[in-house]
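Handoff note, outgoing to incoming analyst
You'll be picking up this chain. Sequence as last confirmed:
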Amino acid sequence: MLLLIVAALALAVATGSLRWETVVTILLFVLILGVTVILHELGHFVAARLARVRVLEFGVGFPPRAAVLRDRGETIYTLNWLPIGGFVKLEGEDGDEGEDPRSFAAQRLPIKVFILAAGVAMNLLLAFAIFAAITLTGDPALGVYVPYVDPTSPAATAGIQVGDTIERVDGRAFSAFGSTSIVSDLNTKVGRTVSLHVLHSDGTASDIQVTLRTAAELTANPDRGALGIGRRAGKDPVTGADLPAIPLEYRVTGDRVSYPTGTAIRLAADRTATATQLIVGGVGDLVANFVTHPTQPPQASGPIGIAAEIGNVFFTVGPIYTLFLAGILSANLAVVNILPLPPLDGGRILVLVLKSALGRRVSLRAERLTYVLGFALLLGFLIWVSAFDIAKQLGSGQ
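Most recent structure output, in case you need it:
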């Protein structure tokens, strides 16, 4: 299945129908989304097995079925033609009580919630594992590319030139995923003499001593930075002409930011929590945008926008950053799936809780109708977001 897709994409590249960057982007998207969804379903599978609930099928990809990988025992393992994600089919998961004591429908409410929530837990675990793998091996570092040097600045006095990249301050490299950057660190050291490790445009490197502007100098002219690289939009002090902004650029360096093991684990946990908090806020903004301003582009992206961002990250800053993005996406999938909207896991848990509280006043027909309506709403929402994603990609010429 996957080989056929790769072959088709390779043929499209060979005939000029697709750029190879687009093909890599598609494959990365399929790989990342596939792994996160399969592990999500694996969470349901493992939880069901632990609860002794009968698993009828574990599918890699979505139907139609391409092949049966294993058909021994009570579970069929299948390979399916649509290579994004997978699924787990449980006995009695559609709500039919039946007579099998090992069916999902026959279980007590805590067991059902445990099985449904296990997929979310697996995605959070995957996000933590990705972040931990990065922190335990060392975060990549970012330096600051110098696009402009103020002629009266400390940078000019020290001999820093356009095209240089500042990689460290006082021997310290700065994590690409941290809250502190080289610029913010310099702004805390105004008036002091610091040592900058600079990679020059000719490939050589040197350590340069620089005395930064004082707080009084920055107060008198807040548009000037402590070092004097980059420029805000303003007026030329001599001619009065408008000067365009020249923003700083961050570049990947060869440094890695290492942490003690305990710190690395805590940092991975913090990043997992931060990723979930970001998507909670993002979902709220997205829903508000959909309800109040449906004709305006949303802040968040759908599958097309996510795929484009994965490709952009991979080609501009490399595989470690792409892996970090995969961790964020796994945390995002966990949060989205726990939302109380059928047919998501959180929605199914909500329906089960309501059925437990209301008894037979919630019929099987009403439950299934709820899932159908929820699915229709999610599909419409996805189409809405994807329409803006497509418009954005067409507008960017990609």
